[in-house]
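Input record, target 12 of the design panel.
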């Protein structure tokens, strides 16, 4: 085993073990007693159900990650990567096509293996807890549309990356970086009008109390709000959410129909104020800059490791190629990604506090934001008492009780 194989294998095993440890800690942190803050929205039975949901999804996560680890190791150490390469090479296609097909087959294999898990999660687990609204027809259509989009959007991008590294010489990483950034911005720009309507129906929010309350609020904080849409989230699940999409002039807010159904106008304005807070505090812009820099560093490191023969030997490859290098580099880069994601989560949790603070201050109704958070937790059966170490590694949002405490602290001042 060479150094690359050792690094990648260690990462896989450490990542897996860390997952199990944090999962166990998280399960142990579940307490029977309902936190005081939640006595008005939960009864003992429903709270018990939310904890059962945490237990069930955790166990299910353990099964999927174990399966995925075993499949990866078997495929790797039985020489699967090289075997597939020999097959695709024997078709003697243009190198770019060979690369697209090689990576395409790996992605397709992965998707096929995860399909039974996704079916079980949707139609058994989510169903049992009363979340599921997805029909088998919607499920199949979603898969088809997802595949279609990966081919027409992901395909050309991947082809461009492969071509740059094949033909553009030492500055290939820079071209890839610039190309990818332009491409991602473009996709984000067209997403609200061209991509998301493929999956959901977006109807402009009708005139009425809610619409005028939202518009009044947006005017009061000088936020140019172009479109307020209702999304038929209930097509797939009873879980609720709200989000902004697009940027520049193409920016719009989408409220799930399930959210509108279960929350008061004041809570909905608070939720929206939180989202606007992310814009006003420039969180969206900062995240975008970070991810652009991140992409650049990744392509630069990729360009270095593509020429390291050892990386290919670690996977028993007969030939070096850009496309296989892309996959192996992705695995080699995982430990760095793991560490980066911890910092990204810290950054993101800090932003959530700031957005909550913005909502509490500008709506002048901190209690509406608190109520919205509580009801959202109930809607989605969120874990109220996650273990701090689990939160540290995995949570992009602070646990709801801490958010409530922070909002109340601001309100007192
Ligand atoms: Zn947020």
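The sequence produced for target 12 reads:
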């Amino acid at each position: 085993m060479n150094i690359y194989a050792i690094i990648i294998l260690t990462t896989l095993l450490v990542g897996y073990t860390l997952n199990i440890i944090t999962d166990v800690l998280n399960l142990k942190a579940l307490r029977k007693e309902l936190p005081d803050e939640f006595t008005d929205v939960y009864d003992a039975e429903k709270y018990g159900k939310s904890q059962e949901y945490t237990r069930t999804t955790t166990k299910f996560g353990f099964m999927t990650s174990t399966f995925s680890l075993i499949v990866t190791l078997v495929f790797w150490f039985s020489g699967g990567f090289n075997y597939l390469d020999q097959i695709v090479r024997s078709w003697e296609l243009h190198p770019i096509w060979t690369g697209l097909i090689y990576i395409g087959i790996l992605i397709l294999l992965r998707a096929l293996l995860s399909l039974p898990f996704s079916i079980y999660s949707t139609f058994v687990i989510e169903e049992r807890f009363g979340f599921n609204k997805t029909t088998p027809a919607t499920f199949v259509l979603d898969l088809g549309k997802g595949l279609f989009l990966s081919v027409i959007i992901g395909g050309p991008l991947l082809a461009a990356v492969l071509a740059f590294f094949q033909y553009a010489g030492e500055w290939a990483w820079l071209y890839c970086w610039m190309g990818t950034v332009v491409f991602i911005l473009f996709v984000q720009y067209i997403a609200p009008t061209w991509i998301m309507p493929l999956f959901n129906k977006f109807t402009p929010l009708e005139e009425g109390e809610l619409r005028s309350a939202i518009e009044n609020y947006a005017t009061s904080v000088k936020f140019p709000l172009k479109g307020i849409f209702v999304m038929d989230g209930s097509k797939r699940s009873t879980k609720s959410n709200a989000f902004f999409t697009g940027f520049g002039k193409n920016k719009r807010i989408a409220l799930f129909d399930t959210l509108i159904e279960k929350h008061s106008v004041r809570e909905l304005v608070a939720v929206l104020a939180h989202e606007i807070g992310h814009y006003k505090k420039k969180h969206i812009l900062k995240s975008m800059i970070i991810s652009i820099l991140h992409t650049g560093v990744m392509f630069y490191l990729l360009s270095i490791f593509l020429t390291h023969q050892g990386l290919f030997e670690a996977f028993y490859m007969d030939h070096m190629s850009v496309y296989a290098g892309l996959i192996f580099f992705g695995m080699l880069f995982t430990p760095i990604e793991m560490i980066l994601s911890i910092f990204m989560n810290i950054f993101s949790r800090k932003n959530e506090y700031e957005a909550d603070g913005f909502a509490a201050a500008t709506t002048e109704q901190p209690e509406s934001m608190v109520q919205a958070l509580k009801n959202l937790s109930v809607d989605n059966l969120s874990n109220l008492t996650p273990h701090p170490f689990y939160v540290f590694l995995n949570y992009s949002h602070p646990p709801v009780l801490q958010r409530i405490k922070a909002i109340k602290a601001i309100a007192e001042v």
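The first strand starts at residue 202 and ends at 204.
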